[in-house]
TrEMBL record:
GO terms for molecular function: protein histidine kinase activity. Residues 28-136 form the Cyclic nucleotide-binding domain. It comes from Actinoplanes teichomyceticus. CDD domains: CAP_ED. Residues 305-485 form the Histidine kinase domain. This is histidine kinase.
């Protein structure tokens, strides 16, 4: 493992140790002229590194260009507090270090992109970054222009397409949010219109009761009876659709027998409110006036329907509030950029935001370990990762299947698994899924940056790891996040 306290202890470089003929045996220099080889031999030196020694450290200024002459070396990248070995070689002539020294980068200092350790006694031919950059620009000007254009073009394209993808994701999420908001808003609007009609009906029915010269004590009893029925409806146990239908039949028959007009219109209101025949019988006995029963039943029915409509409005507005809250959780507009978070909050808000894409034919299974500790993270960035993984899973299943979100602890990391029951990822593609611009989607449907962005957010931004396991019917992306703050650079 490479640490910041590891010292680079190398034997002094020996100037002029390689002759031009010896340099010509290296594939990197074999096509150069005698004069060019002589220049390189004069400006380079030979460096020996004992087994186990650190030759260069990731993040240090890239001051030297190394060519392996003998021995075995390993390159590694820092991921959080761990070093991940990226390559191991003993091939003579391979090069590393200041490999981009020839690029003009507007004064931005070049740094080593990886650490290199000698696994056995090794020997290198070394050029300074300044000399290597100068020879490349002087001897191969056209190639340098092409390489600089390629490097700049790749970065510009990646930035532009990445920005485009973020805008497309924002547009898709906005459309989804509007779609989700429209349903409860429309329900609230319909319920409000119906409520207005029912309140008007209640006023008219109350007027008719008053015109019927109902004794004051009987009218007060009727008002009390209405409140009792509404309270009983609020406490009524939940019934299945079949039980409600059976209850409607029983209430309709009772009302028909007792001369209630429009019984089959009123019965569903009482059944929906959980009012049974025993309650109607009690209403009849307490009124002690057969001529008032019809109007009293209709009046109580209006009151019950009014309560039901107000509950519908409350549910609809509550749904709107929960969607707005999910959008705030998803975007974290009202929170600091970096904080300790519960990963389940972001997963749940992302599922809400993507509900329109997931659809009704995908079954969502949430297997959460709610005992997991919080992790240090940029929540809005992690939500972008969840969005990419869940969206890809939904597309892989073509809108039908099982989406499984699982969380668990693995040593000192929290693992989030996003799995789908799609056809799987072929072996020849699996190793390329995190490459920028690589996509299996049709032209126009994917930029090939979703998983690349996710990889950079998890690995570079959070010191974690993301991997893919896939077989037909069981594909999982595993995101591992450290439970502690990554070491500062």
């Amino acid at each position: 493992m490479t640490t910041e306290t590891d010292e680079i202890r190398l034997q002094p470089c020996e100037p002029g140790a390689l002759t031009p003929d010896e340099l010509r045996t290296l594939f990197l220099f074999e096509k150069l002229t005698d004069d060019q080889l002589a220049w390189i031999a004069a400006h380079g030196c030979t460096l020996r590194a004992p087994a186990g020694s650190l030759v260069l450290r990731e993040g240090d200024p890239a001051e030297s260009f190394f060519v392996l002459l003998s021995g075995t070396v390993a390159l590694s990248r820092r991921v959080g507090r761990d070093d991940v070995q990226t390559s191991r070689t003993e091939q003579r002539g391979v090069y590393m270090g200041a490999t981009n020294a020839y690029l003009r980068d507007d004064g931005v200092p070049q740094k080593y992109m990886a650490s290199m350790r000698a696994l056995s006694d090794s020997e290198f031919f070394v050029l300074s970054a300044a000399d290597f950059g100068a020879l490349m620009r002087d001897w191969f000007p056209m190639a340098i222009h092409l390489l600089e254009g390629l490097s700049l073009g790749m970065r510009s394209s990646q930035a532009a397409i990445g920005e485009r993808q973020r805008l497309q994701a924002l547009g898709a999420l906005s459309a989804g949010l509007m779609h989700e908001l429209n349903n409860p808003a429309a329900a609230a609007s319909r319920a409000t219109g119906a409520l207005r009609e029912r309140v008007a009906g209640m006023r008219m029915k109350l007027g008719k009761l008053a015109k019927g010269k109902v004794p004051p004590d009987r009218l007060i009893a009727l008002l009390n009876l209405q409140e009792e029925v509404i309270e009983r409806a609020a406490k009524a146990p939940a019934r299945t659709a079949m039980q409600i239908a059976d209850l409607e039949d029983e209430l309709g028959d009772w009302m028909d027998e007792h001369g209630v007009t429009g019984a089959w219109d009123v019965a569903p209101v009482f059944a929906q409110g959980g009012i049974d025949v025993d309650c109607l019988t009690e209403v009849q006995s307490r009124l002690a006036s057969p001529e008032l029963l019809d109007q009293a039943i209709h009046w109580i029915g209006y009151a019950l329907e009014t309560e039901q409509l107000m509950s519908d409005i409350e549910d609809a507005t509550g749904r709107v509030s929960s969607l707005v809250n999910a959008a705030k959780q998803y975007s974290h507009l009202d929170r600091s950029a970096h904080q300790w978070i519960d990963v389940h909050t972001g997963l749940d808000s992302t599922l809400v935001m993507l509900a329109h894409k997931i659809g009704d034919r995908i079954r969502v299974v949430k297997d959460y370990d709610r005992t997991l500790p919080q992790v240090p993270a940029h929540p809005a960035e992690l939500n972008q990762v969840w969005t990419n993984l869940i969206d890809n899973a939904a597309q892989a299943m073509a809108g039908a299947g099982t989406l499984t979100i699982r969380t668990y602890r693995e040593d000192d990391r929290v693992v989030v698994s996003v799995g789908d029951s799609g056809p799987g990822v072929p072996d020849e593609i699996r190793k390329r899924v995190f490459e920028p611009f690589f996509t299996t989607k049709p032209v126009g449907e994917g930029t090939g940056l979703g998983l690349d962005i996710s990889y950079r957010i998890v690995v570079n931004g959070h010191g974690g790891d993301i991997s893919l396991q896939s077989s037909p019917g069981d594909t999982r992306f595993l995101v591992r996040l450290p439970l502690s703050e990554p070491a500062s650079a």
